[in-house]
Write a structure and sequence with these properties.
single chain; alpha+beta
C-alpha cells in the first residue's frame, strides 16, 4: 500500500511538471496523497484485501488437524426403591450420584483427492483478486482526483475569460458614456454597452459559482471539509508522445480489468480441479484421550473410573451419489469455458475503448494546438476592433461580435486542452501507469 502511494506521488509530480507554486496552493500530488490515505472507497477496498489475506491460511484450506477439548461434570439427587429376586429391598430417600468426564480429540484429513492444496491455491488467487480490485479502486480514485483538479483549473481560466470580458465591456461602456456626454454618440450605444456589461457580469457570477461547486467535489473526493478553501495551479501539462501500440502492450499486461478476468479464469479452473477431487478416496486420521469417573450411592458399583487413548485411520469413497458429482464436474467445466470467453471479451472491449480514447487524445491535441493559434488571432482582431471603436470607425455590434469570437475561441481552446488531459489520464489509467 505504501509503495503504491509513493509511486502515485511520483506520477503526480511528473504531471505537475515541477512548476513553482505558492505555499497555500493545493498541489496535485498533495491531493493524490490525501485521497489515497482518506478516500472511503479505497479504505473499504483495503479492508476487503485484508480480510482475503486473513482467509488465505493453511487452516482455512483444510491442511491442518483439528484438536478439540471437551469436559463435563454432573451431580444428581434422586429417591430410589429397589427390590431384588431374593426378597431383599433397598430404599434410599436421598441418593446422590456424581459423573465427571473429559477428553481431547484430534482429527486430521490425510488425503482428500488433493482438494486441500487446490483450496489453498484458490485462496491465494482470491487474495490476488482483492489486490487487483484495490489497485483498480486506487487508480479510479486517482483518475477522479486528477480530472477534478484540472477541471478546476479549466473553470478557473474560464472565470478569467469572463472577467476580461467584463473589463472590455466596462471600457466600452465608459467610452459610450463619454460619447453621450460630449455629443459624439447616441444614448443607444451606452444602453447597449450597459446591457452587454450586465450579461457578462451574470455569466461571470455563474462561472464563479460553478468553480466553487467543482472545488466542493474535489474536497469530497479527498474526504475533508467540503468548504475548505484552496487554490490550484494554473498549468495543464499534456504528454504528446503516447503511442497506441506501446499503450496496448501495457494494457494487456497491466490493466486491472483484464488481469481480474484472467485471475477469475484461474479461480474457476481450480474449482474444476476441486470438483474432480471427488474421484479420489478420502483418508482421515483420528486420535484422542478420554477420562470418565462415575460415583453413585445406590448403584451396584459405587465408583467407576475409565481412561485411555484411542487412534485410528478411516478411508471412504463414494461409489454412487445419483450422478450429482458428475453434474458438478460438468458445471465446473462450463464455468471454465465461460471464464475464457470473458477474458477474450475483456481484452476486446479494452482494446476498443483504448482505441476510442486514443483517437480522442490525438484529435484534441490537434484541436488544442489549432485553437491556441486561433486565440492569438482573436486577441489581435479584438485589439484592432477596440481601436476602431475608440476612433468611431466601428459600432457596438461589430465590437461585441469580435469580443464574442475571442470568448468562443478561448472556450474551445480550454475545452480541447482539458479533453486532451482527460484522454491522456484515461490512457495512463488503462495501461496501469497511475499506480506504478
Amino acid at each position: 500500500m505504501n509503495k503504491k502511494v509513493i509511486k502515485l506521488i511520483f506520477f503526480a509530480q511528473i504531471l505537475l511538471g515541477g512548476s513553482l507554486i505558492a505555499q497555500d496552493t493545493l498541489l496535485l500530488d498533495q491531493a493524490v496523497v490525501i485521497a489515497v490515505q482518506k478516500n472511503y472507497d479505497i479504505t473499504l477496498a483495503a479492508k476487503d484485501s485484508r480480510i482475503a489475506e486473513l482467509n488465505n491460511t493453511p487452516g482455512a484450506a483444510g491442511m491442518l488437524p483439528k484438536l478439540s477439548l471437551a469436559g463435563a461434570r454432573s451431580t444428581s439427587t434422586s429417591k430410589t426403591y429397589e427390590q431384588y429376586n431374593d426378597g431383599r429391598e433397598k430404599q434410599s430417600p436421598n441418593a446422590k450420584s456424581n459423573n465427571l468426564s473429559g477428553g481431547i480429540s484430534l482429527a486430521w484429513t490425510l488425503f482428500d483427492g488433493f482438494n486441500m492444496f487446490i483450496q489453498k491455491n484458490r485462496l491465494s488467487e482470491l487474495k490476488y483478486m482483492t489486490d487487483l480490485q484495490l489497485q483498480s479502486v486506487i487508480e479510479n480514485t486517482v483518475t477522479d482526483v486528477i480530472l477534478a483538479y484540472y477541471t478546476i483549473i479549466t473553470q478557473q481560466k474560464m472565470v478569467e475569460v469572463y472577467r476580461e470580458a467584463m473589463a472590455i465591456t466596462s471600457e466600452r461602456k465608459r467610452i459610450a458614456k463619454a460619447g453621450v456626454t460630449f455629443g459624439s454618440s447616441s444614448e443607444l450605444s451606452f444602453l447597449q454597452a450597459s446591457v452587454d456589461y450586465n450579461a457578462d457580469s451574470s455569466a461571470f457570477i455563474q462561472q464563479a459559482k460553478m468553480l466553487q461547486n467543482y472545488k466542493v467535489e474535489l474536497n469530497r473526493l479527498l474526504c475533508r471539509d467540503l468548504f475548505q478553501p484552496f487554490e490550484v495551479t494554473s498549468d495543464i501539462p499534456v504528454q504528446s508522445g503516447l503511442i497506441f501500440e506501446k499503450l496496448w502492450s501495457q494494457v494487456k499486461e497491466e490493466n486491472p480489468e483484464i488481469r481480474m478476468a484472467r485471475t477469475n479464469l484461474s479461480i474457476v479452473m481450480l474449482e474444476r480441479k476441486m470438483a474432480n477431487s471427488t474421484l479420489y478416496p478420502r483418508l482421515n486420521f483420528t486420535s484422542g484421550y478420554n477420562y470418565n469417573k462415575s460415583e453413585s450411592e445406590v448403584a451396584i458399583t459405587s465408583l467407576s473410573q475409565r481412561n485411555g487413548y484411542n487412534f485410528g485411520v478411516n478411508a471412504s469413497y463414494t461409489l454412487f451419489d445419483g450422478f450429482n458429482e458428475n453434474h458438478n464436474r460438468s458445471k465446473a467445466q462450463i464455468r471454465v469455458e465461460s471464464a475464457k470467453v470473458e477474458v477474450e471479451q475483456s481484452e476486446l472491449n479494452s482494446k476498443a475503448h483504448l482505441q476510442r480514447i486514443f483517437n480522442d487524445y490525438e484529435t484534441n491535441l490537434q484541436l488544442a494546438a489549432f485553437e491556441k493559434e486561433n486565440v492569438k488571432l482573436a486577441i489581435r482582431n479584438l485589439t484592432i476592433a477596440q481601436e476602431k471603436y475608440r476612433i468611431g470607425s466601428s459600432n457596438d455590434i461589430e465590437l461585441r461580435e469580435t469580443q464574442k469570437k475571442l470568448m468562443d475561441a478561448e472556450n474551445r481552446f480550454l475545452t480541447a486542452q482539458f479533453r486532451s488531459k482527460s484522454s491522456e489520464t484515461e490512457l495512463l489509467r488503462m495501461s496501469g501507469q497511475l499506480s506504478r
